[in-house]
Amino acid sequence: MLTAARTGAAVLSALLLAGTAAAPALADSPSPSATVAVPSGLYGQGDPTYDGVWRQSLALAALAAVKAVPADSAVGWLTGQQCADGGWPSFRADTAAACDAATEDSNATAVAVQALAALGGHQDAVDKGVQWLKANQNADGSWAYNPGNPGDANSTGLAVTALIAAKADPATVARSGRSGYDGLALFQLGCAAPADQRGAFAYQPDPAGALAANALASAQAALGAAGGRLPVTNTNTVDAAPKALACPAGAAAQPVPRADSAEAAAASLTDRLAAGEQHLMLTLPGATPTPDWTATAWAVLSLVQSGHAKQATGAVDWLAAQGSTWTKGGTDASATATLVLVAKAAQRDPSNFGGTDLVQQLTAAGPALKSGPSSATAAATTANKDDKGGVSTLWVIGVGLLIGVGGGLLLSLQRRRGAQGSAGKPGK
């Protein structure tokens, strides 16, 4: 993926981008092999070498979505990771040293731009990031994970969403006359593909130039095709199901038209979710397929952005029911932040998503907020416990008063206490 962590080597990075290693890519829980200390201000407790900027950006975008104001140290950590030329690497251990351009990547840059744009007040960093993306666009309109390599659907989709977040029209950001949308079209399966793959995106063409549908590539590229960015806030919905790609005679050799791209991608995602019991699957060569949390979450974001929130409902319910496995009780900051983004996009309550207070879990994974809804949650949680961790007499009295005043606030407190209890359960 480009999902959260990159496992270092170029070959493994390619696997992540292809979606073939989504689980380790998102795991930022502590590892026995971790050798880099977690810097102050960074969300999550795992080694940040391969996903520091990624998970920080998702966390800040999620906090912006719930209208929380993060600590200056959290925002300063992200802006401090930016290189002089405007790009971001996955992680800079020594920000006093000049960046190695070879370590800068479009994925980290794209999500950092979106997070800072969502927070507001960081226009210089956003503008520099956009300039870096423009400078490192391939001649065919696509973006690669690292500049100088062939483009891929995931990286191109992320770059397009970053441009949209920064109010730079991807249709006008072009290299050799090829725009970002032209770049996306390179990876979308059209009428020449089997009917059950049309509208999906491939990660990259195979050596023979053929395209094969990829769940994560489809889910992430579709957000860019639909004109979205993080956090997704679209509330316009379409009653009808998304329309599958129409294939009149003579259309087989043509790329998917820009006007049909998002709808065709949404139709493909809807069909694949239905076939997978409302979640997408991760398939590794020689391994048993497993649920792909990352792809499913991004599929929800893309469907909501395309106006098909109704078709995303089943996947949202699945993520709500199963999400604690992915987030590992909140210790995986990337996964937790992504679920906050999903909940907000789907107009669900992220403080009670499947019985879990995702906002509390996310804020507990980083520095204390300056302000926001989870600040009140944390204060209430602390006030409800005595020094030994039990329920205090004052809290019992308070419950009685709350019952007299109204049950709504009491129910809210109960949900918060229940969510905190579930947050302590181990993940998979």
Automatic annotation (TrEMBL):
Keywords: Membrane, Metal-binding, Signal, Transmembrane, Transmembrane helix. Residues 1-27 form the signal peptide. The chain crosses the membrane at residues 394-413. One of its GO terms (molecular function) is metal ion binding. Pfam families: SQHop_cyclase_C (PF13243). It comes from the Bacteria. Residues 52-145 form the Squalene cyclase C-terminal domain. This is Squalene cyclase C-terminal domain-containing protein. It comes from Kitasatospora indigofera. InterPro entries: SQ_cyclase_C (IPR032696), Terpenoid_cyclase/PrenylTrfase (IPR008930).
